[in-house]
Amino acid sequence: MGRHPKNQPSKTSVQNGSPTISTYEKYKEIKRKYRELKKMNNELNEEYGRAIKEARKCKDERDSLLEKLATNYVNEESTSFMDHQRRLKNPLIAYNERPTTQIARNIVNDIPAVSSSSAAKRGPGRPPASSRNVKAYHVDKDTNGNYVLPVEVGLHTILSLGTVVYDRAAYHNDRYIYPVGYSTHRPYLSMIDPTRDTIYTSTIEDGGDNPRFVVQAADQPGNPITASSATGAWTPVIRQANSIRNRKHSNAASGPDYFGLSQPTVRKMIQELPNAHKCKNYRMQEFEVHPIGTRGRGKTNRKAKY
């Protein structure tokens, strides 16, 4: 009685007249902390799982709303020729004066042709299902068969479609073609004035072996942002715009979206350019063309398959 079991160190010892914690006590303390950390880890894993489920739920709700907008858009109010020219010359006026119905359609048009979730389900390297056509909108052509530009497509005003460079691999991939001279502008948050938007002109230039992507803000003339990819050109814009507004948003950017290249209508126009069929890595997409400003199931709303 009162003696320590064999092979078990004493709980305390005395050194210089003061007790110290033994090795056994240290072991017990480490074991206790390990159990606490393990419990905390399990709780964090459960919280992470709940967050993932909530994110998926929000994504499903967003997709559902966008689908409703796509199927229930209404007629856009017509404007006079002079008013249309005024809107094209001053894109900020066009952006601020858009009717609600047009804003809804712009949201729909900003959806990429193939979502990342569907691409993930297909797996890497697998082509999109050919039976699933993509919705695009009709754009007028002139007597020579060229598209009449500039034209408004969603938030973008397409100024030039450019020229297809088919003999340099970096100027296209399986989803996008990067024509030299392609140019578009769109409104976005200013990088220098937190209270205003401005117009950004996005251009693709000939950079030799690789295309050069340029973004120019209207309120910062002579100070373009140049990068080797569309995403690289737009990411600094989003980062700076968020920074001056103290917004804790993600600075991630989809370059093709901000350049307008992911717009189905724009993709259709680009793949109809001369020499586009010579881009060996690009997969030609089938589109269902819908007349703008029509509804119902009458003759004016029939889908023309290209």
UniProtKB/TrEMBL annotation:
Predominant subcellular localization, coarse grouping: nucleus
Coiled coil spans: 27-61
Full protein name: Uncharacterized protein
A biological-process GO annotation: regulation of cell cycle
PANTHER family in the record: TRANSFORMING GROWTH FACTOR BETA REGULATED GENE 1 (PTHR22715), TRANSFORMING GROWTH FACTOR BETA REGULATOR 1 (PTHR22715:SF0)
Region: Disordered, residue numbers: 1-22, 115-134
One Pfam family, short name: FYRN
Alphabetical list of Gene3D superfamilies matching this protein: 3.30.160.360
Keyword entries, A-Z: Coiled coil, Nucleus
Entries under SMART domains matching the protein: FYRC, FYRN
InterPro entries xrefs: FYrich_C, FYrich_N, TBRG1
Polar residues composition bias: residue spans: 7-22
Subcellular location: Nucleus
GO CC terms of this entry: nucleus
